[in-house]
């Protein structure tokens, strides 16, 4: 469905940009800072992102052209809003003290610093095979200035400066990839801070009369082979205990952000019984097990009468992949039964890949490994379509190789110590609750801000 058609089908009026600017500049009072956001992807998450931005107070949703679902089109709108219609603006409300204008981009993202959407149109012509935005794409945008915010840009009568504006990504766990955020800040011109979540960024429109967003813990264990439920219970309980012991002794370096955040909000290791609740008995590869979560809200929210239980809890067993990597002569080893033989075949191609020798952010570091050799042995290696679960299901390509490992993960909503959800709620009736936003602006929440988000 066309994005504008999608918005209009929900009863959200699109506003011509010239009318929007007239409305915003018609008053003589000091300008109210407006946030602007876009969510140009095509998944459910992106559609929920558009709905969220359209309900968010003091925010205008920017509908990008269908042929330009890229960050540069959003920056172009900010520089000259006339070519693009903003979709819908949320209600005007008083902003918290010290609040800054936010320029928001919603996109699927990963802890490796990747985004599903492109930064500029060249992304879709220079990437072969086509993959999401990664560090090298941000470097290219920096060198070509395609997403640079002009130094004298004024929006709604207020100059864009580090004291007035932040650029914010709403995408899962990309905040843990600090080198990407730092390079993105440079590519944006270095004028404004960049902020992104360290955890799963959950957005939904299914259960409430309005939009709800929150953050989720992501507890993960990766392995080359399948594990039993008992093995997973032992592993996760030990990881939690080790993290708690380190944090008790003041050693936070190397402790996963999920465990550090749990400790900060709860003051304890994760109870053993929690893991037993979170890990289901059946663990087939590729499964998503959604677990109802009876949300304890800090204030009442308007639920849909037919809404199902909130499924904020989730267990996943899935293949975690690295790549793809283009090789030559792959047919000689694509069918090799020996994992060592396939690994030996791919190694020289990885060694020749400049990304593994990047001085600021080598490719292996993006996968939380300390060297190319550690990265290499941390995956099983297969040509595209040759892995046991892929054969017969896709067109094979012996010259396109992937690293594969099994990921077991739990996603659980982040709550305060009283088990109440930390969330934002934007109601269809214009009401709003901004408990998650408060973590960015309220000095009383400064202790969790840098655990929930990374700012550069």
Tally the structural domains.
2
By DSSP, the count of extended strands is 17
Largest sheet: 8 strands, antiparallel
Question: Which structural class is indicated by helix and strand composition?
Answer: alpha+beta
Mean pLDDT, rounded to whole units? 87
Low-confidence stretches: 1-30
What is the alpha-carbon Rg in Å? 23 Å
Shape assignment: globular
**Helical residues, percent:** 25-40%
Percent range for β-strand residues = 15-25%
The number of helical elements comes to: 15
For the record, give the distance between the C-alpha atoms at the N and C termini, rounded to a whole number: 36 Å
Give a short synopsis of this structure.
By secondary structure, the protein is an alpha+beta fold. 30% of the residues lie in helices and 22% in strands. The radius of gyration is 23 Å and the shape is globular.
């Amino acid at each position: 469905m066309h994005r504008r058609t999608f918005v209009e089908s929900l009863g959200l009026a699109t506003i011509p940009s010239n009318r929007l600017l007239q409305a915003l500049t018609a008053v003589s009072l000091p300008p109210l800072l407006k946030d602007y956001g876009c969510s140009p992807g095509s998944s459910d998450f992106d559609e929920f992102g558009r709905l969220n931005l359209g309900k968010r107070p003091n925010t205008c949703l920017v509908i990008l052209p269908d042929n330009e679902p890229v960050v540069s089109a959003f920056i172009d709108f900010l520089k000259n809003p006339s070519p693009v219609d903003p979709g819908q603006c949320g209600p005007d409300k008083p902003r918290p003290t010290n609040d800054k204008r936010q320029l928001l981009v919603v996109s699927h993202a990963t802890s490796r610093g990747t985004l599903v959407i492109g930064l500029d149109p060249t992304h879709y012509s220079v990437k072969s095979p086509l993959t999401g935005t990664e560090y090298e794409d941000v470097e290219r945008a920096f060198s070509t200035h395609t997403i640079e915010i002009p130094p004298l840009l004024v929006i709604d009568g207020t100059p864009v400066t580090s004291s007035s504006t932040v650029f914010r990504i709403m995408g899962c766990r990309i905040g843990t990839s600090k080198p990407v955020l730092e390079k993105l800040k440079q590519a944006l011109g270095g004028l404004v801070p960049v902020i992104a979540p360290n955890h799963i960024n959950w957005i939904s429109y299914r259960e409430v009369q309005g939009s709800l967003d929150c953050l989720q813990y992501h507890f993960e264990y990766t392995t080359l082979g399948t594990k039993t439920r008992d093995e997973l219970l032992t592993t996760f309980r030990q990881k939690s205990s080790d993290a708690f012991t380190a944090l008790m002794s003041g050693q936070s370096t190397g402790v996963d952000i999920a465990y550090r955040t749990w400790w900060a909000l709860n003051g304890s290791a994760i109870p053993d019984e929690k893991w037993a609740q979170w890990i289901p008995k059946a663990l087939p590869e590729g499964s998503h097990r959604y677990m109802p979560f009876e949300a304890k809200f800090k204030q009442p929210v308007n639920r849909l009468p037919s809404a199902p239980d909130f499924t904020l809890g989730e267990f996943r067993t899935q293949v975690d992949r690295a790549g793809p990597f283009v090789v030559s002569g792959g047919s000689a080893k694509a069918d090799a039964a020996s994992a060592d033989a396939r690994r030996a075949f791919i190694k020289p191609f990885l060694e020749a890949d400049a990304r593994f020798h990047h001085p600021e952010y080598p490719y292996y570091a993006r996968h939380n490994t300390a060297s190319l050799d550690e990265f290499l042995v941390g995956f099983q290696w297969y040509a595209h379509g040759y892995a046991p679960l892929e054969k017969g299901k896709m067109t094979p390509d012996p010259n396109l190789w992937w690293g594969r490992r099994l990921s077991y993960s739990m996603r659980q909503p982040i709550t305060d110590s009283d088990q109440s959800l930390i969330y934002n709620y934007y109601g269809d009736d214009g009401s709003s609750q901004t408990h998650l936003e408060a973590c960015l602006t309220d000095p009383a929440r400064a202790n969790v801000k840098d655990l929930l988000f990374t700012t550069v």
